[in-house]
Amino acid sequence: MLKLARNPEPRWEKQRVCRTLGRIHGLVALMLLLLLAACSGSSKKKSASDTGVDASADATDTGNDAVGDALEDTETADTSGGFDTTSDTTFVDPCSDVAVGASCGCGGVVQCVSGEAACRGASRTNACGGCAVLPTQPGRACACDGTDLSGQSVCDGADALACDCSGIPRNSCGGLRSLVAEPGTECGSCGGGNYVCDGAEAVLCSGADLPNSCGGCATLDSAPGSACGCDGLWRCAGADAVRCSDVSANACGGCGPLDNTLGEVCVTDCGPGTYTCDGVGGSSCSSPSQNDCGGCTTLAGIPGEACSTTCGAGLWSCDGTDTVACNGDAAVNACGGCAELLQGPGVACATACGTGLYQCAEGLDATSCDAPAVNGCGGCAPLAHAPGESCGTACGTGT
Question: Rounded distance, CA 236 to CA 226, Å?
């Protein structure tokens, strides 16, 4: 069975239409002639009528033939499309296997144009092969990780771009910006801290010593704002010192009036002297011959000054009014040494052979139990000789 083309060649179509229209035109003209002849037949003679009838019949036959030919041509055109259906030629529709009307490209529709499938109405694809509008073109500069450093735009799929920053060196925290300091560098106005990464683009100072309340690094004698004197407050005197704001204190720093005028002559147990500040806000009579402990004899050391002890360094302190003692950081133990004793002298102790007390041992840094000891044979009685010593028998020597 022949497969006919949907769209015959234009030349055959024009010929078929023209031929059909010509035959229809002739048929209409003939029918008009027959109609005129029928209307005028009643006024003619019979012979003329007979002749007219014959002529009419002939004309009718001729018209019928023309109509038949026209209808035959029309039927042929409707069924064969202007082509000889008995021919061996097969006409194939080139768009028969195409989904005409389907979407194509970027917003286009498939159409059959001149026997070929074509995508009509589609817009051009972007530089990455997609349909979306790209913010810029691949290869152009772009900002890396929100910085002002430039990378290169590259396709990230068909409809997106990414910023390639692989060519930019990274800082020690993994970011792109220059850091104010390298991680591990010491920091802090008072020292003690080190810079550490704060994300990829910044560092912060961690573990630094905090400044004091006056902005310095030294330890202050008192907290600024705390009470001092008679009616004052400690105030910062620079970054590393404080001063009491009290102006009502007496000449010796006390709150009440002095009992005596400083510098006046007075008499002490050690002879004449003058009134001076006693160090606690008042005044007292002091003599040049009076020592710092309130006595009259010469002291071995000045209280508060450094001294040496058996167990290390110490400070002189008053031991009464006429003597001083050197008190070290490490006290002498009960045996006169400096080490800490495991058991103090006089503490009870016991062995398998009896009880006793701990006594100081040689070296001043240990004690030992004086309870009866177990002899060399495991007993308690004293042995005449120690096991292992040489001895003599009637037969010779031995141990």
Answer: 11
